[in-house]
Design goal:
By secondary structure, the chain is of the alpha/beta class. The strands form 4 sheets. A 7-stranded mixed β-sheet has the order 6-5-4-7-10-15-16, sandwiched between helices. The model has no long low-confidence stretch (mean pLDDT 96). Bound molecules: 5-S-methyl-1-O-phosphono-5-thio-D-ribulose. 5-S-methyl-1-O-phosphono-5-thio-D-ribulose binds next to helix 2 and strand 9.
């Protein structure tokens, strides 16, 4: 069971992205034929979710290399450096973005001494396809590991969208749920609407309906009540970056869910590929937190409900301390009670 939709696809020499700003009302692809267009699509949330952002950036560099392959090598390499910088500036929190760009740059450096720009462009496209394929494989593997933690009949709360739309396919948090359902377990998903950008109400709700997985949409503020009423058995979320000590950055509103889960003795699981681990950062305090436009809080789309002169804060992510995380679910297995020693041991495995 995998959402039939391709979140990202390569068609006729360009990257195509499902326009996630328009779901669920409209389904359309946006074409990106340059790194600049891809960076714009990431910044503007056409594509979002940490692994999907990384894949999009990889294709953004591949499409740029194909666009520039006629240039002399010196000019080609200079413009590729600029493209990488542009993509790296598109969003700050998801480490998969920087991981994918670094991997693409290594691919350029390896080929650079011997190869012409056209051969490097071909190598970069191959590398982008590999990053996409590996992401799907990682999600399937972590889905299988995580499914073992889900009991038959479980009622699982999730926040934001960590599904096929947030990855190259299958999803992380929703990948665990999909794998559990594939394995014959009955699961009901409680979907936080995820204020202010409504990734839960718009995207997760849509994905689960498409797959026929029972789902109930709730206002974010209802989570504590449902936990207290005994209606939630587990929380599963994705993440944009895990620091070396196991602190986890995810969509704003995740941290209060972890606190509530602890209060009510409910397991709090975080599902992510190894590419989301950032061992360079000692703790979550060092994770850059994106602040987005005030307009996301004062209204939605063309509708405005807050008075125009009101001051607004709009942090897009928060950090959940490692001690509130029951387990990290990765493609290499489950890291229970994550701490630095356990995380480093998993990251070292090949
Ligand atoms: O702002 P977004 O929609 O990009 O935020 C996405 C999330 O917070 C996801 O939970 C996270 O990237 C994990 S996606 C598998």
């Amino acid at each position: 069971m995998t959402l039939k939709v391709e979140t990202l696809r390569w068609r006729e020499g360009a990257l195509e992205l499902v326009d996630q700003r328009r779901l669920p009302l409209d389904f359309a692809y946006v074409r990106c034929s340059s790194a600049a267009q891809t960076a714009e699509a990431i910044r503007d949330m056409v594509v979002r979710g940490a692994p999907a952002i990384g894949c999009a950036a990889a294709y953004g560099l591949a499409v740029e290399a194909l666009r520039l392959e006629h240039l002399a090598p010196a000019e080609f390499f200079a413009q590729m450096d600029e493209a990488a910088a542009l993509l790296a500036a598109s969003r700050p929190t998801a480490v998969n973005l920087f991981w994918a760009i670094a991997r693409m740059r290594r691919c350029v450096e390896t080929a650079r001494p011997a190869a012409a720009p056209s051969a490097i462009a071909a190598a970069l496209l191959g590398q982008a396809h590999a990053i996409r394929d590996e992401d799907i494989a990682a999600n399937r593997a972590l889905g299988a590991h995580g499914a073992a933690l889900i009991e038959d009949g479980a009622r699982v709360l999730t926040h934001c969208n960590a599904g096929a739309l947030a990855t190259a396919g299958h999803g992380t948090a929703l990948g665990v749920i999909r794998s559990a359902v594939e394995g014959g377990k009955r699961v009901r998903v409680f979907v936080d609407e995820t204020r202010p950008f409504l990734q839960g109400a718009r995207l997760t709700a849509w994905e689960l309906l498409e797959d026929g997985i029972p789902a109930t949409l709730i206002a974010d503020v209802a989570a504590g009540y449902l936990m207290r009423c005994g209606e939630i058995d587990a929380v599963i979320v994705g993440t944009d970056r895990v620091a070396a000590n196991g602190d986890v950055a995810n969509k704003i509103g995740t941290y209060p869910l972890a606190v509530l889960a602890r209060r009510h003795g409910i397991p709090f699981y975080v599902a992510c590929p190894i590419s989301t681990l950032d061992l360079e950062l000692a703790s979550g305090e060092q994770i850059p937190i994106e602040e987005r436009s005030a307009s996301e809080v004062t209204g939605f789309g063309d509708v405005r409900w807050a008075p125009p002169r009101i001051a607004v804060r709009n942090p897009a992510f928060d950090v959940t301390p490692a001690d509130l995380v029951t387990a990290l679910i990765t493609e290499r297995g489950v890291i229970e009670h994550p701490d630095e020693a356990r995380i480093r041991a998993f990251a070292r495995q090949e």
